[in-house]
Amino acid sequence: MAQPNAKPAAGAMSKVRQMSLLLNDMQIIDLSHTLEEDMPIYPTHSRYFHTLWDSFETGSRALLYQLVINEHCGTHIDATAHFLREDHPEHLYMAETPLSQCSGRALTLDLSHFKDTDLVTTEMIQQWERTHYTIERGDIVNFRFGWDRYWEPRSVSLAYSKSWPGLSGEGAEYLAAKQIKAVGCDVLAIDSYYAEGSPAHYALLGNGVNIIENLTRLGEIVGESFMVAFPLKIKQGSGSPIRAVAFK
C-alpha cells in the first residue's frame, strides 16, 4: 500500500499536482457580496456592524475592528437547523454540517427574465435539463434571477429587499428527490417574498439540502461550473456568512 506522502512513480503526477494545474487553468469567480454596513438585510433580521476597536491613532500597534453580524447576513448558507427542530432526522447545526455539502459541480439556471411574482416550477427545471445538463446526485443547483442588480445600500434603495421571485415548493421537492447538496440563489431567500409557509425551505432543509442565499455574479457561471461555499464553524449555528467562489 502506498504511503500517504510517498513520492509518485517516475513520470506520474500526484493528484494534488493535477488539481493545482487544473485550477490554475480555470477562471475563479467571486460569488459573494462585500460585507458592509447599510447593506440589504432580510426585513426581520438584525443588521451588520463593523466597528473600530483600536487603531494606530489610539496608540495601538495594530488596526482592529469588531464585527457584529447575523448568521444570515450577506452571502450566506443555511444549516438545516435553521428551520428544523433538534428531533428532526436531518437537523444539523453549522459546525456539524459536512464540508462536502459545500462544494461540488454547480449547475446554474438563468431566469433573469423573472418578475418578483414568478416561481420556478418543476416543469421549468425539467425543460432546462432536457436542453442543458441533467441534474445529478451531489450537484449544487443555482437560480440566477438577476436580483443582484438591485443590491445597494438600504439608504439608497430598498428594491432588493422589497420583493423577489423564488423556487416553488414542488420545484424544491423535485430537487430534493434528486439528492443534490445545495440550492443557491441571488435573492434574499429561496422562497419568494410572496410565498406562504416557506415551502421551499422546508422541502430542501427537511431533506438535508442546504440553501445558499444572496449570491452575485451568477450570470458569469450559467451552465456548469465547480463551486465552493465553505461556512464558518459555528457551534449551534443556524447558518453562516460564506465566501462563495466558482471555478469555470
Automatic annotation (TrEMBL):
<protein>
    <submittedName>
        <fullName>Cyclase family protein</fullName>
    </submittedName>
</protein>
<dbReference type="GO" id="GO:0004061">
    <property type="term" value="F:arylformamidase activity"/>
</dbReference>
<dbReference type="InterPro" id="IPR037175">
    <property type="entry name" value="KFase_sf"/>
</dbReference>
<dbReference type="Pfam" id="PF04199">
    <property type="entry name" value="Cyclase"/>
</dbReference>
<dbReference type="InterPro" id="IPR007325">
    <property type="entry name" value="KFase/CYL"/>
</dbReference>
<dbReference type="GO" id="GO:0019441">
    <property type="term" value="P:L-tryptophan catabolic process to kynurenine"/>
</dbReference>
